[in-house]
Amino acid sequence: MNTLKLYFKSIGMLLRSHLQYPESFIMQTLAQLVMEGGELMVVILIVDRFQSLKGWSGGNLYFFFGMMSVSFYLTELFGRGITGDFPMMVRTGRLDTFLVRPRGVLTQVLCAGTDPRRITCIAVGTAALIMGSTLSGISWNLLKVIALAESIVMSCLLILGLFMIEAVFSIFSVKSVELVNAITYGGRSACQYPVDVYPLPLRALFTVIAPFALTLHVPASWILDRPLYGWPSWTAFVTPLSGAAVFAVMAAVFRLAMRHYRSTGS
Amino acid sequence: MKAYAAVFRMRLRMELQYRGAMIGGILCQMFFGLILVALYRALYAGGAQPVPIEDVATYVWLQQAFFRMMLASDADLLDKIRSGDISYDLCRPIHMYGFYYARIAAQKLTGSLMRAVPMLIMAFLLPRGWGISRPSSLSALLACIPALMLGLLCVCALENITVAFTMKTLDPRGMQGLLNLLMVTLSGNLFPLTLFPENWQKAITLFPYAQLLDAPIRIYTGGYLMSGVLRVYALQAFWVCVLAAAGVFMWNANRKRMIVQGG
Question: What's the ipTM?
């Protein structure tokens, strides 16, 4: 609990420091809004031209897009330390100062970064969710709300876990490894559409290695009353837990990797 | 002119040094390409479209292969603007705009060619409908090369306009983000321009952003007929002139009000 308090305190401080330069902040936030708006526009153009994607209607597609966008940018908003700043911390030696403090390294890394500009991306995602929900005519009840919340939280943990792969690589190689982006940003681009439209190898990748299908698509399609592969209802609540599992595994790997951390000395 | 050519050559050689980053970049771009083609194939399974799927796959691969041409900026220059070191460039006996134009052109040319050649070879090896298909004719392939070069000149002129905005605001992220988004959307990187609604396409293909890669790709796939090729070149050349003129004008205006931060 203490750790959580610490986390929110540091995030609050970082937020205030971001707001010290309001013009730059507003400009960048607007740029983010346009960026995510552009992504949504692509989905709208796709729906305009093709009407449906392997049986998923336009409304369903907006719903999937919204869930992905909200989860991905919530992670970037709260986990910026891992998703963006970590390779820089290794390169500049800033990570060294974390080693002498009486808290876990991972906690401190997470406390060290936030990216409030993403708030507009989350707004676009939320708009897409509402649009998708209305167009698909979802009848909301308590269970569906729980499934939605669980899915988003677990997807955030999954995305954080995937970014930690890059972090672990950068502990060893100092340079950030561009290739890992394929699975994080690539996963986002691919999995904003339901996984069953892809051929088997890609489906396997996003079910077993980067299980976006389990954390996002299974519950989302259950909420849309079109269960993925016709799986029973309970799967919508159980499979998302794989996100927490990925995070736990990566946290352990991260701890192991930190034992081999050699400072760059700068 | 000789000085600019020398800058261009030097930068070309420097860019060739980064081979390690290149391989990672290629694999990453290949993966994105595969995802996109898989998505469009799934969309096409729902019903046929006026544009055949082979052309869409070709469009995706060419866009991915030349991705580096669009989003690569001169990090040294942006640093210089922030730190004020750009004032040293005023001492050079050549025009600043030309100097940096030659640098960015070399960077974009090598960066994209080094990635494009291996990527396109791999994309050719993919099965039909997944990979890139052959050009509609030999003359289309030959006609596509000058169009690509004109596209490169165009994107460099655009890049220098973005830099001119950075000189004003000092922080590259806001304006650059907006302009880059316009670029990836209107150049067809995010979504092939050939799949935009037809009446939008009439306007969008006239924009400068469509001259970068969309025009060469359409020549390649036969979307623009050989008889109309000269018209396409003319439009591209027109935009190169307009954008370069606007860039030179903005750079000169910025040079007058440049404040050196001391230090």
Answer: 0.84
C-alpha distance from A38 to closest chain B C-alpha (Å): 7
Residues of B in contact with A194 (CB under 8 A): none
Neighbours of A6 (CB within 10 A): 14
SS3 state of residue B126:
coil
Condensed to tens digits (0 to 9), the pLDDT of residues B123-179 reads 888 888 888 888 888 888 888 888 999 999 999 998 888 888 888 777 666 677 788
Q: Inter-chain contact A27–B175, Cβ cutoff 8 Å?
A: yes
How many CB pairs (< 8 A) connect A and B?
A: 92
Q: Give the closest of B28, B173, B196 to A45, CB-based.
A: B196
Spatial CB neighbours of B26, under 8 Å, sequence gap ≥ 6 = B115, B118, B119
- The sign one gets for the Cα dihedral B65, B71, B76, B77 is positive
Domains in chain B: boundaries: 2-256
- A residues 191..210 contacting B (CB < 8 A): 193, 197-199, 202
Give the C-alpha separation, A235 to A214, whole Å.
9
Candidates A35, A48, A190; nearest CB to B177: A35
Q: Which of A28, A49, A190 shows the shortest C-beta gap to B35?
A: A190
Q: Under an 8 A CB cutoff, do B197 and A38 touch?
A: no
The model's pTM is 0.85
Domain ranges of chain A: 2-259
Output the 3-class SS for chain A: CHHHHHHHHHHHHHHHHHCCCHHHHHHHHHHHHHHHHHHHHHHHHHHHHHCEECCEEHHHHHHHHHHHHHHHHHHHHHCHHHHHHHHHHHHHCHHHHHHCCCCCHHHHHHHCCCCHHHHHHHHHHHHHHHHHHHHHCCCCCHHHHHHHHHHHHHHHHHHHHHHHHHHHHHHHHCCCCHHHHHHHHHHHHHHCCCHHHCCHHHHHHHHHHCCHHHHHHHHHHHHCCCCHHHCCCCHHHHCCHHHHHHHHHHHHHHHHHHHCCCCCCC
